[in-house]
Specification:
The complex is a heterodimer of chains A (224) and B (223). Chain A has ten helices and no strands. Chain A is elongated. In chain A, helix 3 packs across helix 5. With 224 residues, chain A is mostly helical. With 223 residues, chain B is mostly helical. Chain B has one domain: MetI-like (MetI-like fold, Orthogonal Bundle), CATH 1.10.3720. Chain B is elongated. The chains are: A mainly alpha (224), B mainly alpha (223). The interface between A and B is large, with 45 and 38 residues.
Chain lengths: 224, 223
């Protein structure tokens, strides 16, 4: 201790919470915010668009087409092009990630609702369910596994994509990568990668748990 | 808009080793190299695992884990570990990130083939390899190509980011421009990358049209 570069654990202890901007804890908070907002916002926007695409079939092809194209665009140039609109702020990263999320979630909503068997829908109609109640109590619960599968993809990729924002100074934990590159030093890179992967796995696990809780019948059917 | 005119209108941008044509070619070269290497690894492995049915869970778990890996972190890690004497410290992470989408989709494609179809092929006297090559691969081709397309999208994006760690390509305009506050270069470079990504996307969509058997893609209505 004392001489030579600090070891991994020393570096973590020294930088975890410095009280200044850019401590690991600080970056972790930024990272969570910048990845959670696109996931939630993506779902909130994809649900109505997906449902509209189910209701009006002709809407689906163009919507899916547009989002397919957006999904193919690399994040870095999108961040750069957005800077002139949003300035250098977390929104610059959040907006493209929200669009990527929608590109995954709109088809998930459409497929999910499409997976509702016709006889189930007819039963709900015959029982006198209003369209809204049918949607909330019958169709959405049946669609949940497909939508959550989409959310899991979105959560994991959003969490890892936020770090590209570091190239415009808005990258959450990704800032550890640019810092480590400018001042060649391994511990920040390792810490950044590990934290991002752990964050992604935790999010994935939570969504899997949510699916178990929301759709208990799936497991019951599997057991019998 | 003025930035675009500044960027594309400047004749100096169109020549030399840091001109638009040279950077475009580099981007294509690095992306293609990474994609081809990833394909050589992932397609045979996916076919093998899908056909034998062994190790499927491992593939899916690994691929999920790989999606969580931050591109930039991996690039910086490899460059810090291996130095920048050659392009390989940058190409290796590109390949690593390109493998999972191809692997998973190839595996899922082969595994998802209707078992009746597979049985019918064996029943007609085809051997294992023939069943794979003549029946399973053509039927799974849409998914295999989807994997390739997703992977290509990923590679084009990652190659852009890799400019940060010294790789050439279109990302240079954006990253160098950002560092020197040359916004014409940033905006022009961004537009070039977006166009490049769109062309790649179109090329893959076209390839899918051409190579997938009409019977599989349902363009030919049977019955």
């Amino acid at each position: 201790m004392g001489d030579g570069p600090p070891t991994l654990w020393e570096w973590i202890a020294r930088n975890w919470d410095t009280g200044r901007v850019g401590s690991i804890r600080d970056l972790l908070g930024d990272h969570l915010l910048m990845s959670l907002v696109p996931i939630v916002l993506g779902l909130v926007l994809a649900l109505p668009l997906g449902l509209a695409s189910v209701r009006w079939r002709w809407l689906y092809q163009p919507t899916a087409g547009v989002f397919n194209v957006i999904y193919a665009l690399p994040s870095l140039p999108l961040f750069m092009l957005l800077i002139s609109v949003t300035g250098l702020s977390p929104m610059t990263v959040i907006i493209p990630l929200t669009f990527y999320a929608m590109a995954v979630l709109i088809p998930a909503v459409v497929d999910g609702i499409g997976s509702v068997p016709a006889h189930v829908r007819q039963s709900a109609v015959a029982m006198g369910f209003t369209p809204l109640r049918r949607l909330v109590q019958v169709e959405l619960p049946i669609a949940a596994p497909v939508v959550i599968a989409g959310l899991r993809v979105v959560a994991v990729s959003s969490i890892s994509l936020v770090s590209v924002g570091a190239l415009i100074g808005q990258g959450g934990l990704g800032m550890l990568f640019t810092r480590a590159y400018q001042n060649p030093f391994l511990p920040p890179v390792v810490v950044g990668i590990v934290l991002i992967v752990v964050l992604a796995l935790v999010a994935d696990g939570l969504l899997l748990l949510a699916q178990r809780l929301l759709t208990p019948w799936v497991r019951a059917r599997g057991a019998s | 808009m003025n930035w675009l005119i500044d960027f594309f209108g400047d004749p100096a941008r169109w020549s030399g080793p840091d001109g638009i044509p040279a950077r475009l070619l580099e981007h294509l070269e690095f992306s293609a190299l990474a994609l081809v290497l990833a394909m050589l690894i992932a397609v045979p492995l996916g076919l093998l695992i899908g056909h034998t049915g062994r190790g499927g869970v491992l593939v899916v778990v690994t691929a999920n884990l790989a999606r969580a890996l931050p591109t930039l972190g991996l690039l910086v890690l490899f460059v810090l570990l291996l130095g920048t004497a050659s392009i390989w410290p940058v190409i290796i992470p590109l390949v690593l990130l390109a493998v999972p989408p191809i692997l998973v989709n190839t595996f899922e494609g082969i595994r998802g083939v209707d078992p009746d179809l597979r049985d019918a092929a064996y029943g007609m006297g085809l051997r294992g390899g023939q069943v794979l090559g003549r029946v399973l691969v053509p039927v799974a081709l849409p998914l295999i190509l989807l994997g390739l397309r997703l992977s290509a999208i990923q590679v084009v994006a990652t190659t852009t980011v890799a400019a940060y760690t010294g790789l050439g390509g279109l990302g240079r305009f954006v990253i160098d421009g950002f560092a020197t506050k040359d916004y014409a270069s940033v905006v022009g470079g961004s537009v070039l990358i977006v166009l490049f990504a769109l062309v790649v996307q179109i090329a893959f969509t076209f390839a899918q049209r051409v190579t997938v058997s009409p019977g599989v893609s349902q363009r030919l209505k049977i019955r």
